[in-house]
Design goal:
heterodimer, A: alpha+beta, ten-stranded mixed beta sheet, 10 strands, B: alpha+beta, globular
C-alpha cells in the first residue's frame, strides 16, 4: 500500500524569506476529513501561515476553509494568449528601449518592485512584514536574471530602467509563461506596459511558444485591462486563502 | 458618515433592510450601507441586525479594501462572490451579421415557461447558490422574476435565441440611460446548446440594439468565478472596470 500523501507541503523558500514556517495545501481541496489532517500537520510542524489555492467554484472547499480559519485574500485568474495575432503598439514618445536585463539593473528594479505589486496577496494580508514582501519581489526579479532557464526583459528610458517583465521557459507542450510585470509608477498610463508585454509575446512566439499564460489578481484592474487589450482570455479562476496559526498582528 | 447613536434621530443606520429580498426568501435580509467596515461601525452593525432580526446580511466591498476584508472575516462574514463590471466601447462598432443557425427576436409572454426552465439551470455560479444557505427553489424563482422583469419593465428588453421552434437562450438588457451606456443584465444559454455561439449572437444583437438607441458603450456585470462568461466578454472587447467582493453574514 502506497504511503498516504501528506496533507500539506512545507515551502522552504517562503519560510526562509519570511522567517517563519510556511506551507501550502497541495490538493487545493478541503473537506472535513482533510481539513482535520491539515490542522494536525500544521500543529505538528509549527506552520505559522498556510496557503490554499482552490477552484473558486468549489463551494465545499470555501465553506470548510472558512470554518477552519482560512481567510480569502485574492481571486487569481489564469489567462492565456494564443499568439495568433499579437497587437504591436509602438513605444511611447521619448528614448525608450526594451532589452535584456543585466546585473547592474537590479538595484533600480528592486526599487521599482518595492513600489509595485501593491494589490498582491502578500501586501493585502497585513500579517506579512512589508520589508520581507519587498524582499520577495526583489528576489523574484533577481531570479529572472540568475536562473538560466528564465529571462528578464527591462524597459528603459534614456538608459534608466523603468520596468521589467520576467519570462519563464517554455513547457514541453510549447506553452510559455509570463511572471512579474511592473512599470515604475512615474511612467504608468503611457503605454509602456502594453508595449513591453507585446514585445514579450513576440519574443516567446519567436522562441517557439504556441501560447502564453500568466496569472493576475482580481484587484489588479489596470493589469487586467492591459492584458485584455492584447487579446489574453481568462482560462480559470481560483481563490487564494491564507490561514495563520494565530490572529495576525495589526 | 453619520452613524446611528442612541438618541440621535438624524443618524444613518449602518444597514438597511432589503424588502424585496426579505419577502422573496421569506426571512429578513439586509445590507451594509456604504460597503465598508471599521472598528466603530462593526459592533453597531451587529447590534442593529440583532435588533431587526436580520438573518442574512450582505456586504459588497471594494476588492482593494483590506481593512474591511479583515474585519469581515473576523466577524463571520464569508466571501461568496466577486462582482466584476466590464465595459465595451461601442463607438465605431459596426453591427454584426445575423447569427447563423438560429435567430434572435424579442421575447413574448408565451416564451416565459420555456425561459423559466433555462433560468432554473443557468445561474448556479451566483452567490445565492454558492452560499449554500438560500433555499434553492427560491434562488431559481429569483432569476425567473428577473427574466419576467425583462418583459414588464420599460427600461429593459428581453431577447431570445430560437432555432426550429426551440428556445436556446435569453438575454435581458437595459436601455442606454443619460450616460449613453447600455447594460447586459442577465444572459443564459440552455446547457444543451452551449458551444454554438448562442451567447455571442445574443450579445451582438444586444450591442446593435444599444447602438441604435444611441449607446456609446455597454457594461456587463459578471461573477468573478464565471471564467467562461468573462472569456466571452473579453472576446468581444470588454475591459474590466471594477471588482468588488460579496460577503454574506448569517445570524443564527
Amino acid at each position: 500500500m502506497a504511503p498516504a500523501e501528506p496533507p500539506c507541503e512545507l515551502l522552504d523558500w517562503d519560510t526562509r524569506n519570511f522567517g517563519f514556517q510556511i506551507a501550502r495545501v497541495p490538493s487545493g481541496r478541503l473537506d472535513g476529513e482533510s481539513a482535520a489532517a491539515v490542522d494536525r500537520f500544521c500543529e505538528e510542524r509549527g506552520v505559522r501561515c498556510l496557503y490554499l489555492l482552490a477552484d473558486d467554484a468549489d463551494a465545499e472547499t470555501a465553506r470548510v476553509a472558512a470554518e477552519h480559519g482560512f481567510r480569502h485574500v485574492d481571486l487569481r485568474s489564469t489567462i492565456r494568449h494564443r499568439l495568433e495575432a499579437i497587437p504591436a503598439p509602438g513605444p511611447p514618445p521619448g528614448n525608450w528601449r526594451i532589452r535584456a536585463g543585466a546585473e547592474e539593473d537590479l538595484n533600480a528594479l528592486g526599487s521599482i518592485s518595492a513600489r509595485s505589486h501593491r494589490s498582491s496577496r502578500f501586501r493585502f494580508d497585513p500579517a506579512f512584514p512589508p520589508d520581507r514582501v519587498d524582499a520577495l519581489y526583489a528576489a523574484w526579479v533577481r531570479r529572472g536574471l540568475e536562473d538560466e532557464a528564465k529571462s528578464l526583459l527591462v524597459v528603459d528610458l534614456d538608459g534608466e530602467p523603468r520596468g521589467y517583465q520576467v519570462l519563464r521557459p517554455l513547457d514541453e507542450d510549447g506553452t510559455g509563461a509570463l511572471e512579474l510585470l511592473a512599470i515604475d509608477e512615474a511612467n504608468r498610463r503611457q503605454g509602456v506596459a502594453i508595449w513591453l508585454l507585446s514585445e514579450a509575446l513576440r519574443r516567446m512566439k519567436r522562441a517557439g511558444a504556441t501560447s502564453v499564460t500568466t496569472v493576475i489578481g482580481a484587484r489588479n484592474v489596470g493589469s487586467a485591462r492591459v492584458h485584455q487589450r492584447l487579446g489574453f482570455l481568462t482560462e480559470r479562476v481560483d481563490s487564494c486563502y491564507h490561514r495563520w496559526d494565530r490572529r495576525p498582528p495589526r | 458618515m453619520v452613524r446611528s447613536k442612541p438618541g440621535d434621530a438624524r443618524a444613518e443606520a449602518p444597514c438597511r433592510l432589503l424588502e424585496w429580498d426579505s419577502e422573496h426568501f421569506g426571512f429578513p435580509i439586509a445590507e451594509v450601507t456604504g460597503g465598508k467596515l471599521d472598528q466603530e461601525v462593526t459592533p453597531q452593525i451587529e447590534t442593529w441586525c440583532r435588533e431587526q432580526g436580520v438573518r442574512c446580511l450582505y456586504l459588497l466591498a471594494d476588492a482593494d479594501d483590506a481593512p474591511t476584508a479583515l474585519l469581515a472575516a473576523d466577524h463571520d462574514f464569508r466571501v461568496v462572490d466577486h462582482r466584476v463590471i466590464a465595459r465595451r466601447d461601442l463607438r465605431g462598432v459596426k453591427p454584426a451579421p445575423d447569427p447563423e443557425g438560429f435567430r434572435v427576436r424579442e421575447a413574448t409572454e408565451a416564451d416565459l415557461p420555456r425561459i423559466r426552465k433555462i433560468a432554473a439551470r443557468s445561474h448556479g455560479a451566483t452567490r445565492f447558490y454558492f452560499d449554500g444557505r438560500f433555499p434553492r427553489e427560491r434562488s431559481d424563482a429569483m432569476y425567473e422574476v428577473w427574466v419576467r422583469n425583462g418583459l414588464t419593465d420599460e427600461r429593459l428588453q428581453l431577447n431570445v435565441a430560437e432555432a426550429d421552434g426551440e428556445l436556446l437562450g435569453y438575454h435581458v438588457i437595459r436601455r442606454p440611460g443619460p450616460d449613453r451606456a447600455g447594460n447586459g443584465v442577465l444572459l443564459a444559454v440552455d446547457d444543451r446548446h452551449r458551444g454554438r455561439g448562442v451567447d455571442l449572437g445574443l450579445m451582438n444583437v444586444a450591442a446593435g440594439w444599444s447602438i441604435s438607441l444611441g449607446a456609446e458603450s455597454v457594461t456587463a456585470t459578471m461573477q468573478g468565478r464565471s471564467a467562461g462568461v468573462i472569456r466571452m466578454h473579453e472576446r468581444l472587447g470588454y475591459l474590466t472596470e471594477s471588482v468588488h467582493v460579496w460577503h454574506h453574514r448569517w445570524f443564527d
